[in-house]
Specification:
single chain, alpha/beta, eight-stranded parallel sheet, 13% strand, binds NADP nicotinamide-adenine-dinucleotide phosphate
Length: 278
């Protein structure tokens, strides 16, 4: 598996498997299928309520813990130093491990500076190999980077062909944080799987629209975590390392950027109220 190197020297796979909206009852089966397919990075979160299923599948796989790259995220209701610290212990217990590979703050709301301090402590104690954030747009990201001791290694953001995050990426280069995409296939929105440009480019390389959308992100040095509950799609999404998009095709795909979210607006107070009460 191709890897990227984080700002603390830790190597991270560029492709993993995400379990947002995977029913807790189905999670163990899905992660087992993903592991059988070859995925070794799994992205979960406290707010997905399926950390137990992830832990169970990893344990039952019989594969050494060190071969996995396990990611979880601290939810808003666990924000603040003390609560976050306790929630990290709970996540480790649910995941049946004594460390994760990457801990993220899920949303830039609540006492996230307190949460960040708890993550720095967990990092120093070896309970996580890397720390980072998610959904931090350029303003909050720059602020955070200037007031923490350990710079975030990852920012996980909505990133796909229709939202390429180019402005944010400029700032992330400056503070040496890598971009991890959530919803790399736009969760199917905007008719992505029927997109004409993706179809035309796919026909040239004998690849599907999903594979072209994912390969584009990897060639832009973005880590991806596509989700599917279907094994054949997990395989399809995994088989993107045997071809390379030309510069010309990359440029055409860059042209699909709408520079805005297909899902949410983090600057809308209604959204903030909803998510705080989630
Ligand atoms: N940090 C955050 O705030 C945040 C937010 C959202 C997501 N995430 C993370 O990012 C991961 C991925 O994002 P996502 O789950 O929102 O969206 P996604 O991976 O872009 O898309 C998943 C959707 O596409 C379908 N699909 C998957 N592969 C396909 C293929 N080859 N052909 C056609 N359809 C396909 C899936 O259906 P089936 O399952 O039915 O196959 C599912 O409906 C999440 O699971 C989660 O780990 C993080």
């Amino acid at each position: 598996m191709k890897e990227i190197i984080l700002n603390n020297g830790v190597k991270m796979p560029v492709l993993g498997y995400g379990v947002f909206l995977v029913d807790p009852k189905e999670c163990e089966r899905c992660v087992t299928d993903a592991i059988d397919t070859g995925y070794r990075m799994i992205d979960t979160a406290q707010a997905y309520y399926n950390e137990e299923g992830v832990g169970e599948a990893i344990k039952k796989s019989g594969i050494k813990r060190e071969e996995f790259f396990l990611v979880t995220k601290i939810w808003i209701t666990n924000s603040g130093e003390e609560k976050a610290e306790k929630s990290i212990e709970e996540s480790l217990k649910k995941l049946k491990t004594d460390y994760v590979d990457l801990l993220l703050i899920h949303q830039p709301f609540g006492d996230y500076y307190g949460t960040y301090r708890a993550m720095e402590k967990a990092y120093r104690e070896g309970k996580t190999r890397a720390i980072g954030i998610s959904n931090f747009f350029a303003d909050r990201y720059v602020d955070l980077c200037n007031f923490v001791e350990i710079k975030p290694m990852i920012n996980q953001m909505e990133t796909h062909i229709f939202q390429q995050q180019r402005q944010l990426r400029e700032y992330m280069k400056k503070y040496d944080t890598k971009l991890m995409s959530w919803s790399p296939m736009a969760r199917g929105e905007n008719n992505i799987f029927e997109n004409e440009l993706l179809k035309n480019i796919g026909a040239k390389y004998n690849k599907t629209t999903a594979q072209i959308a994912l390969r584009f992100l990897i060639q832009e040095d973005i880590v991806i975590i596509p989700k599917s509950t279907h094994k054949e799609r997990m395989e399809e999404n995994f088989n993107i390392f045997d071809f390379e998009l030309s510069d010309e095709d990359m440029n055409l795909l860059k042209g699909l950027d709408k520079k805005e979210s297909l899902f949410v607006n983090h600057y809308d107070p209604k959204f903030v109220e909803n998510i705080i009460n989630y």
